[in-house]
Design goal:
Layout: E1 3-9, H1 13-24, E2 31-38, H2 44-48, E3 54-58, H3 63-75, E4 84-87, E5 92-94, H4 98-108, E6 113-115, E7 118-120, E8 126-128, E9 130-134, E10 137-141, E11 149-151, E12 160-163, H5 164-170, H6 182-192, E13 197-200, E14 205-207, H7 214-220, H8 226-234, H9 242-252, H10 255-282
Length: 283
């Protein structure tokens, strides 16, 4: 069983190198590392040429979803019925038996789709170990279960092992979500088609990026400029992107929570505008 590892990257060579170094030490030997470099200008390409990896190149407009689609399109013609795809971020690293444990546990559970808990490499604290739909909203959560597999409504793209047959049945990552929520959409579709998903407690993904994402940085400011506000809700780099959060809620939240979820999204949107942009800038 071969494991194809898909890693999208752009201008983060130091983080990427740590990720690749951890993959080079894996005890599971039958792997192919596929790095999708979306137009890096920081020397990433030159470094990758010295590594035992397959390089796919973008022009800077792939974003996460486009990079994953390119990787899957490369893998599918080469794969066999027993193979797997592991999707992983470039700002992570893994223990040496990471892939071995994932494959074994998936096989032992009828080739289940498995996500992994994510820990912070600096504080050593657990960031999340499941993803749930709570009152219509998709959220990473901490459950701290002692079970081998933690139930999940969906999964993130940070350390998820996907049997190849999932792609044959449900297709590739969606073009509807260019960046955030594309992973949630994919795993929700898989679950709807009858594939079992969960988060293993046998291994973990370790995050090496200490910098908060765009939405956390903007929210921490309290008082926002109009430019900040538009970045928070309309930039592809923001996890609060209004298009993605609205669409994923409409598509996959349980019916009894759809209206509540949408009202909550737009309630926070207008509250942020009037309080953090208008009122606080008048003081």
């Amino acid at each position: 069983m071969k494991v194809f590892i898909l890693i999208p990257t752009r201008n983060r060579k130091e983080l990427l190198l740590k990720c690749l170094d951890s993959l080079a030490k894996q005890t599971y030997a039958n792997i192919e590392i596929v790095v999708i470099d979306d137009g890096s200008t920081d020397g990433t390409k030159e470094i990758l040429k010295k590594k035992d990896v397959t390089i796919l190149e973008g022009d800077g407009n792939l974003w996460w979803s486009g990079a994953m689609r390119m990787g899957v399109d490369y893998v599918l013609p080469k794969s066999k019925a027993t193979d797997f795809v592991l999707i992983q971020n470039d700002d992570t690293y893994m223990e040496k038996d990471f892939i071995e444990k994932l494959v074994k546990q998936s096989q032992n559970n009828s080739r289940m789709i498995l996500g992994t808990p994510v820990y912070d490499s600096f504080s050593k604290k657990l960031i999340h170990d499941s993803h749930k739909i709570i009152n219509g909203s998709f959220r990473p959560v901490i459950i701290n279960s002692k079970e081998e597999i933690i139930p999940a409504d969906t999964l993130s793209g940070r350390g998820a092992l996907i049997p190849i047959e999932v792609f044959h049945k449900i297709g590739n990552f969606s073009k509807i979500f260019p960046q955030y929520a594309s992973d949630y959409d994919f795993f929700c579709r898989a679950k709807k088609q009858g594939f079992k998903i969960g988060v293993t407690t046998k291994t973990k993904t370790i995050s090496t990026n200490s910098r908060p994402n765009l939405s956390k940085r903007v929210k921490a400011q309290g008082k926002l400029t109009l430019k900040d506000f538009f970045a928070l809700y309309f930039s592809r780099r923001s996890s609060n992107n209004l298009w993605s959060s609205t669409l994923i809620t409409l598509m996959y939240s349980p019916w009894k929570y759809k209206i509540y979820g949408i009202l909550r999204i737009y309630g926070v949107f207008f509250k942020t505008f009037f309080i953090n942009v208008l009122i606080r800038n008048l003081k």
